[in-house]
Specification:
The complex is a heterotrimer of chains A (175), B (503) and C (100).
Chain A: H1 2-27, H2 31-51, H3 55-79, H4 82-87, H5 94-116, H6 132-139, H7 144-165
Chain B: H1 5-26, H2 30-56, E1 59-62, E2 73-76, H3 78-105, H4 111-130, H5 134-152, H6 159-188, H7 193-199, H8 207-224, H9 233-239, H10 242-267, H11 270-276, H12 279-299, H13 304-324, H14 328-359, H15 370-373, H16 375-389, H17 395-409, H18 413-439, H19 466-484, H20 486-492
Antiparallel strand pairs in B: 1-2
Helix pairs in contact in B: 1-2, 1-4, 2-3, 2-4, 3-4, 3-10, 3-14, 3-19, 4-5, 4-10, 5-6, 5-10, 6-8, 6-9, 8-10, 9-10, 9-13, 10-13, 10-14, 12-13, 12-18, 13-14, 14-16, 14-17, 14-19, 16-18, 16-19, 17-18, 17-19
Chain C: H1 4-24, H2 28-53, H3 57-85
Helix pairs in contact in C: 1-2, 2-3
The chains are: A mainly alpha (175), B mainly alpha (503), C mainly alpha (100).
Chain lengths: 175, 503, 100
């Protein structure tokens, strides 16, 4: 019982942390603040993964997001001149208000649907979903094709990024 | 051997796309030839696939030998067999005709990377068409989007912004699709299409399934430029390098349209898509508005690429209309329109690429008298334009004819009027160009202000080079072939996609 | 045991926050972060399902979604940087994503 209560407490705190920090992420003016709140939201999600018994993914989440993606974003923020962008006022247009209203309505509908729904898939026999060994084995047997496709994806991203950031472009015209 | 053909279409391209940048480092020109050879062999494998499907029924190719629903499989049946051949044929022809244009528009140092990405784009489109798994589809969808972002950004001024808008909207669309996949997984625990088709009917009244369906429609709709979600499309087509507009206009949106067919017809059961939820009614209205909107916007354009882009939005409307009519004729018309529009739009974009390569003309007003300079190209232009308008015996006439039959048998008289009205609008914007080409004299770019003097000697414009002209003529022949052999195509392939028991 | 629906609700809220961020903000980097947030929300759904069903498939999907997210960020930010370098062609006012 005590364990269950502790789990609930952790769940409520981390969920609130994730929601609040993601709200702060989309509302902060300063891009670096947004980025830091994004890390916080992702770390909170990682704790939720731990709560679900998926240690491996929690770890990957921290490494990929807090490590790789975050670094990428911070690099870009450092490379560009933010002073101009910070002067931008959030322009409130009718389309945006409509978009927000529709999204919020949609969210309420989703919460109703998902909150009252029960999961109906077939139950598996696995004792733990956080086991790196199981994941590794599956990755090279059953999921071999998606794994290869993911490697294509990374190849495409790499080639694309290299091609875009080459100095010369547009028929010989210098950048 | 023949059962492995679907895998070959992809593996050949994958291996080559990896080697192209490496060999290209040594010799830049080799990149193009390597890609061409790979696409040619992939085309042969696609033909073998279609042949096998026609002679011995659908192919199920299991990766790694795991039986579905646990393993991931490629499924090629009557619907996607044709689409696979269509995609690889158009890619092959585009590649042949794109050589000169790419050399002109892309800097030499980028050729190997460019062709590598180009191969990956074709690969992912073929993968999307062949896969039998919803999650695998997502991964291919992302590969195609990522490569398209990179390739579109290679274009002229404004291409970066166009590509950036596409990145944002494309990622949002892909996330919607992914959440749909997630909800299907919640409800069924499986993501194999055939398996889903068996599991889903029992739980059709679950709200989660509705939600997943809505997410799929929005996600795929964004990817194919369905009317209210088309914001990325005109800019992307206009500013991309000509070779890339030529590749993605006939293939990428058509593959997404195929995925639309696949999700509505064989993942969800048609009874669900049309009866349990009123999706068909909603889609019919969206398609009708999209058809008219695309045509009217096309009339207002001055840039020919942008005009063709808006015309694509309108044509996508026809395909969705075909699905949403929910009867036999409508479905066949929609599926046939995938083919006829792919040939017509591919041909038009190839012609635009040749014109831009030879003259640099993009403004419609500058097309005056081009028939004297490029007679064969302009003849093909007329043919493709007739197909877009729907003049018999071109392909466009027959697909529209089936669509009209579909609206009549469903008693949607308003939609019949929409199709006829849109054909009229198509005629307006194509005849505007044809009139300029044939009935005004060529004044040239530099001497544009001088009036009606003949400047043939001054401006040296000749017919497009053979490498461009031959693919254009083959595409034009394709338009006629799809039109003339439409009954055979329907008999061999499309009649099987109509679910049993449908009027 | 915490009911799995609780996770779905949290995930739905995060997803919609991501959508709102992507459609309202004009700062391109924040838009990127919002998209990452949407993908993260989907991941939460998948892992919760996986944990509840005792099947590893959802976890595997998350693995691939993360790959996709990282690749997308790389390409998107490369395009963004190029736009910034060619300052003459971009005004930030053009970042209006819902136009056209």
């Amino acid at each position: 019982m005590a364990v269950l209560i502790a789990k609930w407490v952790i769940f409520v705190i981390t969920s609130l942390l994730a929601i609040v920090s993601s709200l702060l992420m989309i509302t902060r003016r300063n891009t670096i603040h947004s980025a830091l709140f994004m890390i916080l939201a992702f770390v909170a999600s990682a704790i939720l993964y731990l709560l679900l018994g998926c240690q491996f993914m929690a770890m990957i989440q921290i490494i990929v997001y807090a490590g790789a993606v975050m670094m990428l974003i911070l690099f870009v923020i450092m490379m560009i001149d933010l002073s101009k962008e910070e002067k931008l006022k959030m322009k409130v247009t009718r389309t945006k208000i409509a978009g927000v209203i529709v999204s919020v309505l949609f969210m309420l509908a989703l919460i109703l649907v998902m909150g009252l729904n029960s999961v109906k898939g077939k139950l598996g026999a696995l004792s733990s979903i956080g086991d790196a060994k199981t994941i590794g084995t599956l990755l090279f047997t059953k999921y071999l094709l998606p794994f290869e496709v993911a490697s294509i994806l990374l190849l495409a991203a790499m080639v694309g990024a290299v091609m875009l950031s080459k100095k010369k472009a547009f028929g010989g015209e210098d950048q | 051997m023949m059962q492995q053909a679907p895998a070959f279409t992809i593996v050949i391209l994958l291996l080559t796309s990896f080697w192209v940048p490496i060999i290209g480092m040594i010799k830049k020109e080799s990149a193009y030839y390597l890609s061409l050879i790979a696409i040619f062999f992939s085309f042969l494998a696609a033909c073998a696939t279609l042949y096998t499907v026609i002679t011995s029924g659908p192919i199920h190719y299991r990766m790694g030998g795991w039986p579905p629903p646990w393993g991931i499989e490629f499924v090629v049946d009557y619907l996607n067999g044709g689409v696979v051949v269509l995609i690889s044929l158009i890619s092959l022809l585009t590649t042949i005709s794109a050589k000169k244009s790419v050399e002109q528009e892309i800097h030499r140092s980028k050729w190997p990377l460019f062709w590598s990405l180009y191969l990956l784009l074709i690969l992912s489109l073929l993968g999307m068409t062949e896969t039998g798994d919803m999650f695998n589809m997502y991964v291919y969808l992302e590969v195609s989007s990522l490569t398209a972002y990179g390739l579109i950004a290679m274009g002229e001024r404004g291409a970066l912004l166009a590509s950036f808008n596409y990145v944002i909207l494309g990622s949002v669309g892909a996330s919607f699709y992914l959440l749909g996949v997630g909800y299907l997984y919640i409800a069924t625990g499986s993501l194999n299409m055939a398996d889903l088709n068996k599991i889903l009917p029992a739980i059709y009244h679950s709200k989660v399934i509705f939600t997943a369906f809505a997410f799929f429609i929005v996600g795929i709709g964004l990817k194919m430029g369905l009317f209210p979600l088309h914001m990325w499309l005109p800019d992307a087509y206009t500013h991309a390098p000509s070779a890339i507009s030529t590749l993605i206009a006939p293939t990428m949106t058509k593959v997404s349209a195929y995925v639309f067919f696949r999700i509505i017809l064989s993942v969800f059961n048609p009874q669900f898509s049309w009866e349990v939820i009123p999706a068909a009614t909603l889609l019919r209205w969206i398609a009708a508005v999209g058809i008219i909107y695309g045509s009217i916007m096309a009339i207002a354009q001055k840039d020919i690429k942008r005009m063709l882009a808006y015309s694509s939005i309108s044509q996508i409307g026809y395909i969705v209309l075909g699905i949403a009519l929910a009867n036999q004729m409508g479905l066949i018309g929609g599926a046939l329109h995938i083919f006829s529009h792919a040939f017509a739009k591919g041909c038009l974009f190839m012609i635009v690429m040749a014109v831009i390569y030879k003259t640099g003309i993009r403004n419609i007003d500058d097309f005056k008298g081009l028939n004297k300079k490029m007679p064969f190209t302009m003849a093909a232009f007329c043919l493709a334009a007739f197909s877009m308008i729907g003049v018999p015996p071109t392909a466009g006439f027959f697909s529209k004819w089936y669509l009209v039959l579909g609206t009549v048998s469903g008693r949607h008289w308003f939609l019949t009027a929409v199709i006829l009205m849109s054909s009229l609008l198509n005629a307006v914007y194509f005849f505007r160009i044809i009139e300029k080409i044939y009935f005004s004299s060529f004044v040239g770019l530099v001497n544009g202000g001088h009036g009606h003097h003949e400047h043939h000697e001054v401006v040296a414009v000749a017919e497009a080079p053979l490498g461009m002209l031959v693919p254009i003529l083959i595409m034009a022949a394709g338009i006629l072939a799809v039109g003339l052999f439409n009954t055979q195509i329907i008999h061999l392939l499309l009649q099987f996609i109509v679910p049993k028991g449908l009027a | 045991m915490i009911p799995v629906q609780a996770y779905f609700v949290v995930s739905a809220i995060l997803f919609i926050i991501g959508v709102i961020g992507a459609i309202t903000r004009r700062n391109a980097i924040v838009v990127f972060m919002s998209i990452e947030m949407m993908l993260n929300a989907v991941n939460l759904t998948l892992i919760a399902t996986s944990s509840y069903l005792h099947s590893i498939d959802g976890v595997m999907f998350v693995f691939f979604v993360m790959t996709v997210a990282a690749a997308e960020a790389a390409v998107g930010l490369a395009i963004f940087l190029m736009m910034y370098r060619k300052k003459d062609t971009i005004k930030l006012d053009e970042f209006n994503l819902l136009k056209g």
